[in-house]
Amino acid sequence: MPSFEGRSGDSAKFRPYVQADNFNTGYPIRYRPADGIIDMETGRNISMSLPTTAKFSSGIPKEFSSAGIHAGVQMTNSVGRKNVYSDLEFREYFVWSNTKDLLQSLCRSSLKNYARQFMSQPFEVSRLLLQVGAFSPSETNSATPSTTFDEDEDDEEDDFFERTGSPRAKRYSSIQRSVPKLRVPVVENTNINPLSLNTIDVMSALISKEGFRGLFRCTNTSFLYTTLFFTIDAWICGFVSPIFGVPDPFFIDIVHSTNPFRSLLLSVASSCITGLLLAPVSLIRTRFIATTTKSQNRSFKRLLGQLTWKQLLVPLRLIVPTINFELSAHLLKTWVPYFLYTRCSVDRYTSPLVFSTVELLTSVVELFVKLPLETLLRRSQVDYLVNDPSCPEALRISENELSVKFGGYHGYFATLYYIYNGTKPVSHNDKFSLEVPSSDTNVGLEGLFRGWRVGLLNVISSWGLSILHDQSLENVEVEKF
To answer: 166 falls in which pLDDT band (50, 70, 90)?
Structure first.
């Protein structure tokens, strides 16, 4: 039966006691929830008489003992503030072994990502040139005509006049030799002339025109853009996820989130915001890939130094193409696992075969949805760099600096129609008509999906490698068990 001490009005002392026997000493003890178990013989907490407590209490400094802690709390309360930094373990950040492991992990990850970017850069360069370029049959089947005079023909003319026996011909021949020959300056054609519009032929044309440097152009800027995109996207998700009360999508799958729909919206919105923030970097990347390696001002650092902070914002005409491209690149990838889990109760662990098959089909559909929108984005970027008067002078380029003849940009949906039919709508007195088809061979349905063969090969190979990786992990777990 619990006993009570203290006045009924004193809430601090009105605490129940439970009396029991101490099995070690045989003396009665009292238990009060606020103070723990009290030994009635000594008046101390019984936990202080335990062997482990007695062993370690002798070596505890005074400031870490119970009396020292109570004294420290009273002192900090009297001052009116508490040292909140005492609970943080800052020394772990300055341990050399932890710092060494972190630096090694960062270097290993950076080298692996740079090697992946370096190997895929020739295919990305070829795909972008096919997306923004216009090619004619003469360009794809013949070499660039030379603009200089043929020296053999001039020599034949001189020989003809020399062989003529008339005095007039001799006088003309002497005048011809006394006047220096006028040569037309050589105008180098910077456009590539591929044999066909296949990726391999475009790569061969780049090698013949600019060497291997033309294939691996803009590798550093592409690596920087990819690294910044992943870092900013992860930072935005980590910063906003506590505000919405959802787990971070970068650490916990959306299907295992407490609120999958909010996690889905957070992941897609973060990708779109990151794409808009890095739109100037993407614009510079497109500029470096579309222009020849001999063009001026190809330094990323120098370009950033010549731009003001207002010019580092996304141009208004590029907002819609950028958002649509980011949605096509991330929406299906995140929405399909969410739909499978919420509607069909299928995830990676319960039905691995079904999930992997649907994941492959989703990647294929995503590729064919993304390519036309990427074509629109790249053409709008090149059109902004070439024809837009609001483009900064440091970024502006001329058509002579392009590696291919620009295919043109006629509006968002009108460009899709032009690429598909080879004709573009023209307005005449508020009425639209169609121009005569040009000699551009980069049209038709395949013109909207340039690079789909290499992209499909990349999707299938990545899917196969992920399957092999999962199987290797399962084998390792079985062996460990």
So the answer is: low
222 with 160, same domain: the answer is: no
Q: What is the pTM of this model?
A: 0.70
Q: What residue type is 198 in one-letter code?
A: N
> Could you read off the pLDDT of 224-276 as tens digits, one per residue?
999 999 999 999 999 999 988 888 888 888 888 888 889 999 999 999 999 99
Q: Return the amino acid letter for 84.
A: V
Read off the pLDDT of residues 311-361 as tens digits, 9 standing for 90 and up.
899 999 999 999 999 999 888 888 988 888 888 888 888 888 888 899 899
Q: How many CB atoms lie within 10 A of CB 141?
A: 11
Is residue 154 located within the same domain as residue 299? Answer: no
Residues 172 and 303 in one domain: no
Angle at 337 between CA 336 and CA 343, to 5 degrees: 85
Amino acid sitting at position 339: F
For residues 366 and 397, membership in a common domain is answered with yes
Instruction: Give the pairing type, strands 425-428 and 431-434.
Output: antiparallel
Which residue(s) pair with 28 in the sheet? 21
In a shared domain, residues 210 and 354:
yes
Task: Please report which helix (H) or strand (E) contains residue 21, including its range.
Answer: strand 15-21
295 and 415 in a single domain? The answer is yes
Q: How far apart are CA 97 and CA 140, in angstroms?
A: 59
- Same structural domain for residues 342 and 233? yes
> Which residue type does 115 have?
A
Is residue 139, in this structure, part of any structural domain at all?
A: no
Last residue of a domain, one of 61, 84, 107: 84
Q: Tally helices (H) and strands (E) across the chain.
A: 17, 8
> What is the distance between the alpha carbons of residues 17 and 206, in angstroms, rounded to a whole number?
90
Q: What does the block give as tokens for 79?
A: 């001052």
Instruction: Report the distance separating Cα 434 and Cα 430, nearest Å.
Output: 13
Q: Is residue 303 in a domain?
A: yes
Q: Provide the 3-class DSSP secondary structure of residue 476.
A: helix
Please report, for residues 82, 94, 268, 298, 374, the alpha-carbon distance to residue 62 in angstroms, rounded to integers and kept in the order given: 19, 28, 55, 67, 68
Q: Give one DSSP letter per residue of 47-105, joined into a string.
A: GGGSHHHHHHHTTS-GGGSHHHHHHHHHHHHHHT---GGGGS-GGGGG-HHHHHHHHHH
**Residues 172-228: tens digit of each pLDDT:** 444 454 444 444 444 467 788 898 889 999 999 999 999 889 999 999 999 999 999
Q: Is residue 413 part of a domain?
A: yes
Same domain, 398 and 259: yes
Burial (CB count within 10 angstroms: exposed 0-12, middle 13-18, buried 19+), residue 364: middle
Question: 324: closest CA among 277, 395, 377, 281?
Answer: 377
Structural domain boundaries, residue 179: 149-183
Structural domains of the chain, count: 3
